[in-house]
Amino acid sequence: MLQQGQQFPLTIKRLGINGEGVGYFKKQVVFVPGALPGEEVVVQATNVYPTYTEGKMVRIRKRSPHRVKPPCPVYERCGGCQLQHLDYNAQLEAKRDIVIQALERHSRLNIEALHIRPTIGMEDPWHYRNKSQFQVGVKKGRVIAGLYSMNSHELVDIDRCLIQHDATNRVTTVVKAILQDLRIPVYHERKKTGVVRTIVARVGFFTGDVQLVIVTATKELPRKELFVAEVKRRLPEVKSIAQNINGQKTSLIFGDETIVLAGEPYIQEVLGDFSFELSARAFFQLNPIQTIKLYDEVKKAAALTKNERVVDAYCGVGTIGLWLAREAKEVRGMDTIPEAIDDARQNAERHGFTNVTYAVGKAEVLLPKWVKEGWKPDVIVVDPPRTGCDNALLKTMLQVKPKTVVYVSCNPSSLARDINTLAKHYHIEYIQPFDLFPHTAHVESVAKLVRQ
Fold first, then answer.
1. Annotated binding residue at 335?
2. CA torsion sign, 367 to 370 to 376 to 380?
3. What's the domain count of the chain?
4. Confidence (pTM)
């Protein structure tokens, strides 16, 4: 049994789902952040548990040929990215491998027989994020904004995040300076004093529109008019300035109340042939360039011929359903969040679709009701949260038995578990991994399942 503080040699076999190196010491699994497959390292045990050990790398005896120097100056401290020290092509291979590992661990499927395609990556895997949410703090009398360091309460000031679109970096930098110049009080997490908590910046990749949301702990924003005037003067590209009020002690960024301080209540974004209006709290995919590739894959997998009834479960603001609507006879979407459904309805109406309807509710409740009324889907598209599909929905799908299920996943573990359940009546035609978040351990996938 390993002891805490003990040092030992380790060969890294693969990357784990959080981007850490995984090796075995006397049959005990060891997780080592920063270590890469194929490396021989000396590790110090930091936490020893009955079934696994967490360690930190003391030194590398044999380096991976794929190890690179991370270009970001705060990479080690920030924790927002996990894989900048791994060459990009090797990241894509590792992500396909993460999908395979999840299938090995959470399914009884014959993995040799599955068609798991190479990961689709980006030509330029930097500056791809259209939105930043940086916490605000004060360090040595200076206003800073960034992310909390891994497993600590130290706020890391991020000047220019390399995975953020430059427009969002610029907004954050200038707003920090305005807060400093106007001496607007910054919220203090422990003392619960001050006002400004978070700077949220979002850019329309394909329109250039920029949105700024300042999240405050109180409704009162000191020197509000001056703040707005300075933002307009120094950041003329900002089309929408809003204040969101969140006085709760919570890890959630946004509170329930949003006030538009200046400009439009939303910015425009375009994806393919569609335009979207994004209000301060509206959810939108964070990597528009890869989202288009992902949605095109969903369309290919659905293989519609204008005769099909399609269900878009967990539809959000309706993006996937709209992407399929032209090729479908009818699309019905559902989501449990009423605001998302309002946005989805507006999006469908704005694009002139008459064959798309949206309902507030759970797919596992609405689907059986529709089937009873004589409306049976040919294709079901699911894009569930990280926890995967609700069990009741999987059961419903096995009862309704659509011809095709297209599963869009942001978590390989829940994907593996869910398609294992659906494999009772479905053949898994292929799984296509996507890299929506380069330099992080995230991997998205599209799986096509066909009724047997």
1. yes
2. negative
3. 3
4. 0.93
